[in-house]
């Protein structure tokens, strides 16, 4: 199946960083509950799967989470669930979503690799499974070109990421380390000052001059460019073949064990949504904007949604081999000591869905359940 590219900033969130941080939860608890009207969240209809009333699904209001945004907006996931209703919750970054998963506030979530790794590690492999891929790419380092002319000009500058330990935070810290620049992972202080700030607040801080740059996912990256910033580095240039997992799908192990039929239905909806986006790119952009307006009250202008959508690649493959590298990055960044990866994947239901859709199976790079 052809993949769609969309510039997505790496929304990777390192939940294993929890001991280093007081997780910043939103005012509405773990996440903001998405608004519910017939247009935004089509009503559940028909027979409930396994008699289950609802499934709680988490995601970010990011273009890198296009599968979730479109799947919910168009009712493609709800259609597969019949009378089992979706209860959506929106998050800013991965650590908060992992906390919600651990607390039972969500059952399934679209999330970055770093929080997945960290959450799995902190629970000693007991809290979650990665059950599908969703997107690759879509993360950039955007800077004020008056202050930063090249990648050699980062020392002494203030660079933002969405949250301590999130996927972009790990990526930035790892990159700075490779450049020989020292930063304390916990405080963000060092040769470069790493500022952890909500995606929604970063553009205003950047335009005010409080930030010199930001390593962020889409659409925040394109917002910064629209506000006068310059893309200094597209993260996909750091990866072999330009591919790295930015968003995957996780599920609570308890929920997977108790409701595999519901999980399979969500995965059917996810796979069909990616196919629909591939076949309907213009409609998909409009759908993303409709969902973002429902969740945040604002649509994205064309100068933001167009480049953001262009630079993200949607896919069902979790790109499992890149997860090992991301775990190594978290270790080098000082956010993780001894990552647990064995058993983090269970792609059984995804491959069942892919076979039914006439698509090839995907691999877990030897990190699947035994």
**What percent strand?**
15-25%
Global mean pLDDT: 89
How would a crystallographer describe the biggest sheet?
Answer: 7 strands, mixed
Specify the overall morphology. Answer: globular
N/C terminus separation? 29 Å
Number of helices: 13
Order of helices and strands, N to C?
EEHHEHEHEEEHEHEHEEHHHHEHH
Any low-confidence stretches, pLDDT <50, length ≥5? 1-30
Structural overview:
The chain is an alpha/beta fold. It contains 13 helices and twelve strands. The chain has helices at 66-73, 76-81, 94-103, 113-122, 167-178, 202-208, 220-226, 253-258, 260-279, 281-296, 302-310, 320-333, 348-356; strands at 32-33, 54-60, 85-91, 108-111, 128-137, 139-143, 158-161, 193-196, 213-217, 230-234, 245-252, 312-314. The strands form two sheets. Strands 1-3-2-4-11-5-12 form a seven-stranded mixed β-sheet, with helices on both faces. The protein has a five-stranded mixed β-sheet with strand order 8-7-9-6-10, sandwiched between helices.
Task: State the main characteristics.
single chain; 370 residues; alpha/beta; 5-stranded mixed sheet; 12 strands; globular; disordered N terminus
Q: What is the topology?
A:
Elements: E1 32-33, E2 54-60, H1 66-73, H2 76-81, E3 85-91, H3 94-103, E4 108-111, H4 113-122, E5 128-137, E6 139-143, E7 158-161, H5 167-178, E8 193-196, H6 202-208, E9 213-217, H7 220-226, E10 230-234, E11 245-252, H8 253-258, H9 260-279, H10 281-296, H11 302-310, E12 312-314, H12 320-333, H13 348-356
Parallel strand pairs: 2-3, 2-4, 7-8, 7-9
Antiparallel strand pairs: 1-3, 4-11, 5-11, 5-12, 6-9, 6-10
Helix pairs in contact: 1-9, 1-10, 3-4, 4-12, 5-12, 7-11, 9-10, 9-13
């Amino acid at each position: 199946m052809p993949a769609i590219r969309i510039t997505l900033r790496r929304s990777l969130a390192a939940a294993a960083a929890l001991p280093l941080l007081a997780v910043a939860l939103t005012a509405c608890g773990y996440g903001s509950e998405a608004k519910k009207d017939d247009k935004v969240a089509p009503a559940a209809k028909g027979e409930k799967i396994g008699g289950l009333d609802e499934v709680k699904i988490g995601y970010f209001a990011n273009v890198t989470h296009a599968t979730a945004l479109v799947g919910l907006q168009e009712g493609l996931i709800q259609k597969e669930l019949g009378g089992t209703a979706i209860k959506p919750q929106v998050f800013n970054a991965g650590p908060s979503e992992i906390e919600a998963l651990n607390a039972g506030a969500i059952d399934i979530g679209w999330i970055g690799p770093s929080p997945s790794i960290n959450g799995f590690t902190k629970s000693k492999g007991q809290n979650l499974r990665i059950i599908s891929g969703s997107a690759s790419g879509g993360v950039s380092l955007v800077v004020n070109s008056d202050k930063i002319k090249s990648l050699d000009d980062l020392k002494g500058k203030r660079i933002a990421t969405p949250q301590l330990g999130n996927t972009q935070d790990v990526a930035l810290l790892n990159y700075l380390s490779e450049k020989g620049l020292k930063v304390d992972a916990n405080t963000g202080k060092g040769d470069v000052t790493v500022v952890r700030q909500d995606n929604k607040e970063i553009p205003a801080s950047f335009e005010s001059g409080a930030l010199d740059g930001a390593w962020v996912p889409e659409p925040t990256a394109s917002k910064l460019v629209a506000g006068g910033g310059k893309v200094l580095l597209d993260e996909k240039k750091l990866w072999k073949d330009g591919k790295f997992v930015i968003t995957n799908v996780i599920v609570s192990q308890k929920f997977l064990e108790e409701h595999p039929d519901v999980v399979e239905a969500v995965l059917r909806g996810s796979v069909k949504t990616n196919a629909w986006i591939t076949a309907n790119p213009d409609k998909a952009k409009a759908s993303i904007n409709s969902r973002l307006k429902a969740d945040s009250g604002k649509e994205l202008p064309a100068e933001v949604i167009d480049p953001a959508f262009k630079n993200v690649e949607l896919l069902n493959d979790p790109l499992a081999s890149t997860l090992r590298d991301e775990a190594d990055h978290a270790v080098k960044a000082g956010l993780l000591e001894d990552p647990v990866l064995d058993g983090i994947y269970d792609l059984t239901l995804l491959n069942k869905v892919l076979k039914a859709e006439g698509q090839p199976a995907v691999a877990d790079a030897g990190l699947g359940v035994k």
